[in-house]
Amino acid sequence: MNPKRRPIIAGNWKMNKTTVEACELVRKIAYAVINTKDRDVVVAPPFTAIPGIIDVIRDTNIGLAAQNMHWEDKGAFTGEISAEMLLDLGCKYVIIGHSERRQYFGETDGTVNKKIRQALNKGLLPIVCVGELLSEREAGKANEVIERQVMGAFKGVTAAEMQKIVIAYEPVWAIGTGKTATPDQANEIHAFIRGKVKAAYNADVAEGLRIQYGGSVTPDNVSQLMAKPDIDGALVGGASLKPESFAALVNFK
Ligand code: PGA
Q1: What is the rounded CA–CA span in Å between residue 234 and residue 232?
Q2: Cα–Cα distance for residue pair 222/234, rounded to 1 Å
Q3: 89-99: per-residue pLDDT in tens?
Q4: Cα angle 34-12-79, degrees, rounded to a multiple of 5
Q5: Hey, is 64 helix, strand or coil?
Q6: Quick check: CB of 225 below 6 Å from ligand 1?
Q7: Which of 31, 90, 199, 222 measures 20 to 30 Å from 243, CA to CA?
Q8: Which tens digits make up the pLDDT trace of 15-41?
Q9: What is the CATH number of domain 8-250?
Q10: Which helix (H) or strand (E) holds 211?
């Protein structure tokens, strides 16, 4: 954590929670983080729960994210959701390029780039996920993969737009496995990403960029991760589905 950057803790609920369950969860979270003023708190429920949740989080310090969107404005894209639809529901952020989308739904650096540009054009703040597979790490290719994903994602994105982006570094081998990257391993990749952004843009953009770590973050390991200078937040899956654990994560010391 660097005091110049405001921490951002986001809960990615994935394909979990009906509307009733989602509203109950977010109500408890809102209560637990009512006095949390020095960091951003974000929840990313499934699309179907968003209309219910928006009423619960009105006048709270919780920001709303979608988990995905399409890059076109509208049209014949059965099953897809547009940026405008998300804005219409009250979303502020959108997660783009999560490894599960890359792995199971054919997303590539190219589609990730189109989605980022569309989100920025429409006024949504992208949370862009990057991360290497276990086989890539074992082959010594983690940096290469991350560089390719970062450069591919931000093609055509201006320095001013870059200031609206949050990057989430999520090593695929750490997601949902209980295996966290060590704080040093995570910080090394975060510093690497910041260096690439500095080279592609400038020092101001790089210094302002918030980079979350994701992959088996829990209340037990969040403080060690957040103590590292280049780790500015967390993108949390499993531990964001319980109000006590998500609140404990948000309120890390
Ligand atoms: P996890 O998921 O916290 O359950 O590992 C993180 C993520 O996929 O964003």
Answers
A1: 7
A2: 8
A3: 999 999 999 99
A4: 125
A5: strand
A6: no
A7: 90
A8: 999 999 999 999 999 999 999 999 999
A9: 3.20.20.70
A10: strand 210-214
Q: Roughly how many angstroms between the first and final C-alpha of the chain, as a whole number?
A: 11
Ligand 1 mean position, distance from CA 214 (Å): 6
Is the alpha carbon torsion for 124, 166, 152, 200 positive or negative? positive
- Nearest 5°: the CA angle 150, 225, 206 is 35
Closest residue by Cα to residue 232 from 209, 206, 248? 209
Both tokens assigned to 19:
């509307």
Helix (H) or strand (E) holding 186: helix 183-200
Is the C-alpha dihedral spanning 128, 13, 51, 74 positive or negative? positive
Q: Given this model, what pLDDT does residue 1 score?
A: 86
Q: How far is CA 135 from CA 142, 171, 172, in A?
A: 9, 11, 10
Q: Which DSSP category does 181 fall into?
A: P
Give the dihedral of Cα atoms 75, 77, 80, 86; nearest 10 deg.
Answer: -10
Q: Which atom of ligand 1 is nearest to the CA of 239?
A: 3
pLDDT recorded at residue 179: 86
Q: Residue written as tokens 């290497």?
A: 132
Rounded Cα distance, 80 and 71, in Å: 10
Which residue's structure tokens are 């994105």? 157
Q: Which two tokens stand for residue 37?
A: 């003023």
Low-confidence ranges of the chain (pLDDT < 70): none
Residue 197 CA to residue 210 CA, distance in Å, equals 11
Q: For residue 129, what is the enclosing H or E element?
A: strand 125-130
Q: Could you identify the atom of ligand 1 that is nearest to the CA of residue 235?
A: 9
Residue nearest to atom 2 of ligand 1 (CA): 237
Q: How far apart are CA 230 and CA 194, in angstroms?
A: 8
3-state secondary structure of 159: helix
